[in-house]
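Page 42, continued from yesterday. The earlier attempt failed because a stray header line got pasted into the input along with the sequence. Redoing it now with the clean sequence only.
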Amino acid sequence: MMRKNVIYNIVLLWTIVSGSVMYAQTVKGVVSDSSGPLPQVNVAVKGTAINTATDFDGNYTITVDSNAILVFSYIGFVTKEIAVKGNSTVNVVLVEDSQKLEEVVVVGYTTQKKASITGAVSTVNLGDLSKTRVVDVAQALQGQVAGVFVAANTGAPGDGIKLRIRGEGTLGKNDVLYVIDGVPTRDISFLNQSDIKSMSVLKDAAAGAIYGSRAASGVVLITTKSGLKGRSSFDVDMYSGIHYATNLPKMLNTDQYLTVKDQAWHNTAGNAASAISPYAADRSRTDLANTDWQDELFTTGISKNFQVSASGGSENVQYLISGGYFGHDGIVVEDNDQFERFNFRSNVNADISDRFKVGTNLQISYAKQDKLSSSGDAPGVIRHALIRPPVLGVYKDVSDPTYSQRNPYTDLPFYTGPNDGWSKIYEFTSNPIAIVHFTDDKRNTFQTFGNLYGEYALLRDKSLKFKSNLGVDIKFSHNKNFASNFGDANINDPSNQYYGLGRNNRPNGLDENRGQEMTFTFTNTLNYIKTFKEVHSINALLGMENINSKAAAMGGSRQNFDNTTDPFRYLDYGSTTNAYSSGSASNWSLLSYFASGTYGYDNKYFASATMRADASSRFGPNNKWGYFPSVSAGWVVSQEDFMKKSDWISNLKLRASWGEAGNQELPNNAYETLVSSTGGVVNVVRYGNPDLKWETTTQTNFGVDLGILNNKLSFTADYFTKTTDDILLTVGLPAVSVGVIERTFVNAGEVNNKGLEFGVNFQNNDNEFKYGINANIATLTNRVNKLHEFVKNITDDFSHTKTETGQPISSYYGYQFDGIYQNSAEVSTHLFSNANATQPGDIKFKDLNSDGQINADDRTFIGNPIPKVTYGVNFNASYKNFDISFLLQGVEGVDRYNDLKQILNYDSRPFNSTTAVLDSWNGEGTSNTTPRVTFNNNGGGNVSSVFVEDASYLRLKNLEIGYTFSKTVLGIKDMRMYASGQNLFTITDYTGLDPESTSLIDKGTYPQSKSFIFGVRVKL
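This time it went through. Structure tokens are written below.
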């Protein structure tokens, strides 16, 4: 009987097992959203404990019963259930649920669930990002992330962007490291904004230390779009815009100008009060103009953008191809401030087998810029448009003996004959329209950027993957500047070799330079991601990376071109006298090993650690290697049992981190001794320093993440402090012992930044009217803690700044403005030791040492160019097919030295001025802010706090209204039309052209323009 029962049980067990095998099957597929594959999506069999997760490219494989129901869940998206029904392939497209947290974020060399992130990592809302119609992707980050400061260097087309993460950390280069699809670079101006799928900002050292010696200034990770399995699409995005100069200062017209200069002439020592000034006498002239130079210089700019992409794929191969054109003709007359960029990108991914996949992502770009002087630099187009007197016209009269058809522009004022020359009562400024016309400075860049990778899953569950990635960044540049001779001749000596030539660009000349830079990045990683017993999660990474970079440049210049037409603007046609040629090459390399690991327990407790070791060719043999560790931890308090009753709290996480990152941005071979040889004699040019080593940034971060009402409202806050030590400085050696040689590099300085960061997001999609707000604000305190014992301070006379211990980097340094002397008694009382010809109406400076005189000992720190507060507010709303959004962005607590104000309203030369001088001091009690107008020194020539202005501002960066057509028409799946306005208004006390300018000294910056853009996006 017992034997029969055993046989029965064996047969029954075999029947069950065999039946399960008969009806079990393997299902695979890809999970994606509207932008591309989704990694780490949970795929579970409903009603069972069977589950798996998608890999980095959204693939999954699972063995299930043929009648099973698969549940696809992913935080940030609506959960989806699909019945297998015997199908072997189930592809899923998830729909975003903006009321939930996004789960997976791209971090260093891998992805990580957002719940497990313990460092300061911010993901960028691409919906907000896409509404900023800018040519440089970096500028699109403006106002989007707390602690990230972004500003356009100038408003000129093609000029660069300044981006800083958590302040200025070093006295050298503070450029952020960008990593695009695993390939590092310092510049993303070539990148097409429409190609971006995701962006993450690694702000603290715990997040960025995995990038070691290049991460001290923060890291921005960018993933570009790729094709999707099972569907194809064709997308078109095009727009056109018009641009205007706004917020321009009100300048004196001819009548006001002559009145003010007449008053200045009478206020000048030696001129009798009853005498008639030359300005009063000139009122009877019939050849005076009344030129508004700003109106003559600025015009309507035009921009145009066209981007197209095609994507699709089969089960094994996916592709995306995109191309685009962007063109911008700026707001200055003629066409010498244009920028154009052409882009082409191809992305192909192929599954060679279930475990092995390969892919390539290659971008080619070509950019052309017609460069004008845009920051007040010579020849100063904007600057001269403001200071040039209105009495001078744009063009000469044809009867003027100096007129020529090639050069009809006025230059030196009022030719009076070959002996008297030109009128001396008007300053010899340049004609800005002539500068524009004769500028021919073309800059071209051709760039190839991309990667080729292979990835193999070593285990069947794909938890362990080996990936090899080869990145390439190749750039070719060609700059060609032909400086035409123009203007009036002002040499009276016929024997002079330049007699008869105009005073500008004398003689004419051509500078031409070509360069190439090639950087190859070879990265190999081993990544293990696994969850055990549903409570233990591990994300471990091992890797090595090798970077090699080579650069070469050559150039030449010649002068005295007989024929200056375009076909002859080549070096061969210039004179061989004073010809110049140059050539150089450099290279650097970096070898790195790194590891990181994140452990999570029960989705409550997380700990992470990273270590990177870098060896750089830029450092000497004694400190070739640098080591950069980090540790961090997180506690998801909302997962604790004692929080269950607080069901209104969706998420509460506390974070803490510590880590180190490095900076190797210094000249190649800086540690070596340089020598020169002349006539067999070897001379030392610079003494080396074999102990030269990395700058190291140590950062501590404490943070909290809070979500309430099912994460409809979320809040994040961080406090950080970061200190950069061993900052690279140059020290001069005593000339008496070594002679005059170049300064030697040493590690000596220390800089600290600390601050608070807050972000809040609210999204309400419960009703037909949907709306959301995403806002952030951050504070920053910057201080120099230490310099070298032989470098007490670093002074820059050009920008009027000084870097000194206890002060922010590059603080403004000069005299403190203390009003205007109202009478002689004030002068004698204040300057009891040395009045130095000071008169009532002159500027009063504070006598800080109370010695009765004003001299260099009374100078002090008078301003801080680093913003203390940055903020941004994004708003979006939609009703049915209509949508609207806007971005407000601003900074507080930042100063700018307004040199343009100094030369316009305080200079003792007869330049034009703003109408503010009409309220200048003209007797006791008339003004305590603006000194008397005079051609003598009134104190306006001194560097002082009166020219350091508060450059805080609030700007409406973008306002966009759109309409989406819901019905498919003529094969068009989706079409959205929109109208956008940029820089629509600015609230600021700054009197310069643009408070956003990044120059330490504002000499007349090409302003950002107000723009109106009209566009359409179509999906076929």
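Notes: The chain is about 10% helix and 45% strand.
Reminder to self: strip header lines before submitting.
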